[in-house]
Write a structure and sequence with these properties.
Blueprint: H1 2-7, H2 18-35, E1 50-57, H3 62-75, E2 79-80, E3 85-86, E4 90-97, H4 99-102, H5 106-111, E5 112-117, H6 122-126, H7 130-142, E6 144-145, E7 152-158, E8 177-179, H8 192-202, H9 205-210, E9 215-216, E10 220-225, H10 240-254, E11 259-264, H11 279-289, E12 298-302, H12 316-320, E13 333-339, E14 353-354, E15 360-361, E16 381-384, E17 389-390, E18 397-398, E19 405-408, E20 417-420, H13 422-440, H14 446-456, H15 461-466, H16 472-483, H17 490-499
Parallel strand pairs: 6-9, 7-10, 7-11, 8-10, 11-12, 12-13, 13-16
Antiparallel strand pairs: 1-4, 1-5, 2-4, 3-4, 13-15, 14-17, 17-18, 19-20
Helix pairs in contact: 8-13, 10-11, 13-14, 14-17
Length: 505
């Protein structure tokens, strides 16, 4: 039948067996779409060759299925990279193909379990010379619009920021580099604050560099240093609540008319509070609801991180390691970490596998699973915080650059770019979303912006799969205390604000 379709026409000059053969093509096309588990908006164009992230079934013989896929891929002109990542039930590889090529062979389709868009990763940019990194930065700056008239900001309460970086210079004025103690100076003596600044302004720079379309920046940055420079006496832990409120007050005096979201990734992991209020979390709660000054604020906190040496015990350790103080604050938006990153250099780490599956909990993220039910469900949201890899025997873990987020380096004259991850990175991404919503809806209360972000969040398929057992009540409680309400979506939050009712009670 297929041969006649190719070689013969009917009396009406249509190909023989056209309805039958073309219905098969439509079925194959539908199969490709059914395998797609990434953002629907990223589904490749029909005729443009695209790098696909192909998740193969394992079945009874992993190697046989992989070999079958490679053989049929070669027969239809698909280019397959040699790199392989192996999960217990999936083999992941990259393939360059059009949609038509991917759907040409029934045998090839039979090997596939999932399809995603292959993503660039930070390792590509980190391996480049600083002069090459500068070219990517200049290309991004050349595509930016919307630098003027920004009325909302992310205010970082961190180690300070070095605003001489070309990606930060126009967004963070020197007058808005403050410190709780003026003698500290507003510059970044470490690297954390500048990395947070890059993520809270641009998001993951990997995606920005890989794009070619214009970029709109809808907010600016502010910074108040709350940690002293190296060599000076550390802050008294009992005074962090007062220090946090003082930092906010300093910026509000400096820029009284600007709308802002505060972002703080500083926390303490002493574990003694177990979800109950502390002096620090109470001060954050007071500032967030405006109890003392009738001025509500949106405050984004990082949930805190599992110690690197304990991540080999993922995921069990994450349910034991608790949200760090002041992340238990009821009125703040506490952000944990998820990950979609699984591609890494398997030649350099032969036999290693990713700790987390795409859409799962990041290995760094703490939770409130072990808290009593009287205390809040934390985190509230989860965003990208990177992944890790585990050696075959599980004794060692590592975090290659390819599984982190790309951001701004604190010493740009030496090296403009660096990588960052964990719940700090996730909190910066959440603050960026909140500031963007504030810019789009300048009349909304801070509480409304927080409600829109939570309202837009959804649990991923992996989050649902990982918590599939037990009653529905127990499943939902576990999901809330591990992932919060899920992963927020900026466009969904924006669309909800203009087209759907969102009730904030």
């Amino acid at each position: 039948m297929v041969t006649k379709y190719r070689d013969e026409d009917t009396k009406s000059e249509r190909p023989s067996n056209q309805n039958f053969v073309e219905s098969i093509a439509r079925i194959r096309q539908a199969a490709i779409e059914s395998f797609w588990t990434d953002d629907p908006g990223l589904f490749p164009d029909a005729e443009r060759p695209t790098w696909w992230e192909v998740w193969l079934r394992v079945g009874q013989d992993r190697d046989e299925i992989t070999a079958t896929f490679e053989a049929h891929a070669e027969s239809v002109g698909i280019r397959v990279r040699r790199r392989r990542i192996k999960f217990s039930d999936r083999t992941v590889l990259l393939a360059l193909a059009t949609r038509e090529q991917m759907s040409q062979s029934v045998e090839l389709l039979d090997c596939i379990a999932e399809l995603r868009l292959a993503k660039d990763h930070p390792e590509f940019f980190m391996e480049q010379h600083p002069s090459e990194q500068a070219k990517w930065i200049n290309d991004l700056l050349g595509r930016v619009k919307g630098l003027q008239g920004r009325t909302s900001a992310v205010c970082l309460l961190d180690t300070g920021v070095n605003n001489g970086h070309p990606l930060l210079r126009d967004a963070l004025s020197t007058s808005n580099l403050l410190a709780c103690d003026p003698e500290w100076g507003g510059n970044d003596n470490g690297s954390h604050g500048t990395g947070m600044a890059g993520l809270s302004l641009w998001g993951d720079l990997t995606a920005q560099f890989a794009a070619s379309s214009p970029v709109t920046v809808e907010h600016c940055l502010e910074s108040v240093k709350i940690l002293p420079p190296p060599g000076l006496d550390p802050n008294d832990p009992e005074l962090y609540g007062n220090l946090t409120q003082e930092a906010m007050a300093r910026m509000e005096v400096q820029e009284p008319q600007r709308r802002r979201v505060y972002c703080m990734a500083v926390s303490t992991p002493d574990q003694r509070d177990r979800g109950s209020p502390s002096s620090w979390s109470s001060a954050v709660d007071d500032a967030a609801c405006g109890a003392s000054d009738e001025r509500p604020r949106l405050i984004v906190l990082a949930a805190g991180n599992v110690r690197p040496e304990n991540r080999r015990l993922y995921p069990e350790m994450n349910d034991v390691d608790q949200i760090h103080d002041p992340g238990q604050a009821w009125n703040a938006l506490t952000v944990g970490a998820t990950t979609e990153k699984v591609q890494f250099d398997t030649e350099g780490f032969r036999g290693w596998t990713p700790l987390a599956r795409p859409g799962g909990l990041s290995p760094s993220s703490t939770t409130s699973v072990s808290w009593k039910k009287d205390w809040p469900n934390k985190p509230d949201l989860v965003l990208e915080g990177g992944n890790g890899i585990r050696e075959r025997d599980g004794a060692e873990v590592d975090t290659p650059d390819s599984l982190l987020l790309l951001t701004t380096h604190s010493r740009p004259t030496e090296r403009p770019l660096t990588t960052m991850g964990e719940t700090s990175a996730a909190a910066a991404l959440a603050a960026r979303m909140a500031a963007t919503l504030m810019a789009r809806y300048p009349d909304f209360w801070p509480e409304t912006v927080r409600g829109l972000l939570v309202h837009s969040a959804e649990w991923t398929r992996e989050m649902k799969t990982a918590t599939a057992g037990g009653s529905s009540g127990n499943r939902n409680r576990l999901r809330l205390r591990r992932y919060g309400y899920g992963v927020p979506d900026l466009e969904r939050a924006s669309w909800s604000a203009s087209n759907l009712l969102t009730l904030v009670a």
